[in-house]
Amino acid sequence: MKAVAITRKLPLEDPGCFTAIDLADPVPGPRDILVRVKAIGINPVDYKQRSARTEEETAPRILGWDAAGVVEATGSEVRLFRAGDEVYYAGDVTRPGSNAELQLVDERIAAKKPESLSFAAAAALPLTAVTAWECLFDRLGLVPGDLAQGKDKTLLILSGAGGVGSIGIQLAAVLTGFKIIATASRPETVEWCYKMGAHHVIDHSGDWPAELAKLGFPTVDYIACFADTTAHWKAMAQAIVPQGKITAIVESAEIPDIGLLKSKSVAFIWELMFTRSMFQTPDMIKQHDILKEVATLVDAGRIRSTMKENGGILTPETLAIAHREQEGGRMIGKQVLETSW
């Protein structure tokens, strides 16, 4: 099979950072589906994994953990899919990624893609949709579909225009009754947050707890932080209601002062959507269920793809451009690349 991989630790500006290579076709394990990749979504985890490569590594590494494609073959124990099914998934960070012609994925973390979406539009969703769903419903404990639970309660989503924020706002808007307050710092990102379904948008680049108070919200009941956890830690501790909950997805550059949450008895919970696949947890199939439900919501017209930018066909050059844009930290929604396999 063909793939675009990193074969050496090189700076992104080096033309050899990504290389087109040929590898043997992978063989499915018992619970694997073998997928012909049609489109990939780009995420910050891609450049973080690229940067983490060490000088000593010699084997090519295939990045990419967001894809949509067609099932080519299935393992002996697969029951959820058959050859020809169109699927979407985020994959497993401990296995070769989706920047390739073929990819092996455990059936428990994949689902049939939304029928109403192209492969490109579908590839924008899996990683961020699973992350946002787990943040809202697994970590914060909101109940999907219970509109009464959020009556007179508030949910703050930090970095509402990013990939996770874009789908997180939508899921909260259609599946909960919470008042959704998103943060953004540019006119175009503010507009995007409202388009996704936010009730209010405030600027996170300054004293955002003061902005909350001006809106009439001295505190909020729940916070989903999809931005720099360290940078917003003190503000979150100030803004969260006593006995509230905070979830976050961005690893800290330093250890946050957890003591700031003690007086309010606040719960802080990390979220990593790869946890279930990395540790083969007993509830691993929950991600299949999440993606299945997201596809149902998309096909019913209740939520939409967050694809904002299509960077064209996957090549070493277009992949480098996509990584550079991710590192810039100013992406709105999701960017995707298609394949020509």
Number of helical regions: 10
- Please provide the count of β strands: 15
Structural class: alpha/beta
Average pLDDT metric? 96
The dominant shape is globular
- Helix/strand order, N-terminal first: EEEHEEEEHHEHEHEHEHEEHHEHE
Low-confidence stretches: none
CATH class placement of the largest domain: Alpha Beta
Please, what is the CATH homologous superfamily of the largest domain?
Answer: Medium-chain alcohol dehydrogenases, catalytic domain
Number of domains: 2
Q: Classify the fold: give the CATH topology of the largest domain.
A: Quinone Oxidoreductase, Chain A, domain 1
Distance from first to last alpha carbon: 9 Å
**Named CATH architecture of the largest domain:** Alpha-Beta Complex
What percent of residues are in strands? 15-25%
Query: What oligomeric state do the depicted chains represent?
Result: single chain
What is the radius of gyration? 20 Å
Q: Main beta sheet: strand number and arrangement? A: 7 strands, mixed
Portion of residues within helices: 25-40%
Write a compact overview of the structure shown:
The chain contains ten helices and 15 strands. By secondary structure, the protein is of the alpha/beta class.
Description:
- With about 350 residues, the protein is of the alpha/beta class.
- The chain has ten helices and 15 strands.
- The chain has helices at about 45-50, 120-125, 125-140, 165-175, 185-195, 210-215, 230-240, 275-280, 285-300, 315-325; strands at about 1-5, 20, 30-40, 65-75, 85-90, 100-105, 110, 155-160, 180-185, 200, 220-225, 240-250, 265-270, 305-315, 335-340.
- The protein starts with a strand and ends with a strand.
